[in-house]
Amino acid sequence: MEFTTALFYVFSAIMLVAAIQVISARSPVHAALFLVLAFFNAAGIWMLLKAEFLAIVLVLVYVGAVMVLFLFVVMMLDINLDKLREGFWSHFPLAAAVGVIVILEMIAILLRGFLRPDNHVPAAADKIGNTKYLGLEIFHKYQYAFEVAAAILLLAIVAAVALTLRRRKDSKYFDPAAAVKVKSTDRVRIVKMKAESDRVDNNETATAATVKQEG
User: Fold this and answer.
1) I need a labelling partner for 208 at 20 to 30 A (CA). Which of 93, 107, 173, 194 fits?
2) What is the rounded CA–CA span in Å between residue 181 and residue 179?
3) Among 12, 194, 189, 23, CA closest to 96
4) What's the fold here for domain 1-81?
5) What is the value of pTM for the model shown?
6) CB 42, CB 58: distance < 8 Å
């Protein structure tokens, strides 16, 4: 057995154990940590398959961002575990059926790959690397599809912000649309006033006259 094959089995075994612990752990924090372990082992398998881009994305996006946010939310919220476990066995048959279907599909794909391996790796990928070749394919051959996917993700972000936005009574709020429509004449009003120097001179003259009369 080759060393890479042994590593594949080791990573796969650890990932399966971690995945089982994700759904069986009583603490949500422990389940999230086991999910991080599963992600790291999946990234190791991607590296063995020479898909370094997918491995890096899996670690940076899911482990570095999604799971950190998930852990933050879980640790900040007061989650009642008893309510979460209510109705577990009532949903178990449907969940088991879906899991069996997913396992059968994965077995079919893996058996096809082991029985009839397709080594149709482009020659350009061997010379320039998978990551650079993937970038060239995305931004040349699938440029419009990539732009459509980016627009959909942007729409999802805006929709998520709009759905979670709540107005607070103790915070000041202004309408950005109304702020853009404001003109300079609406904000500044110029008033012509008489110069203060004439008034000061008149006051000084009146004071001098009063002193002279008193004297």
Assistant:
1) 194
2) 5
3) 23
4) Four Helix Bundle (Hemerythrin (Met), subunit A) (1.20.120)
5) 0.54
6) yes
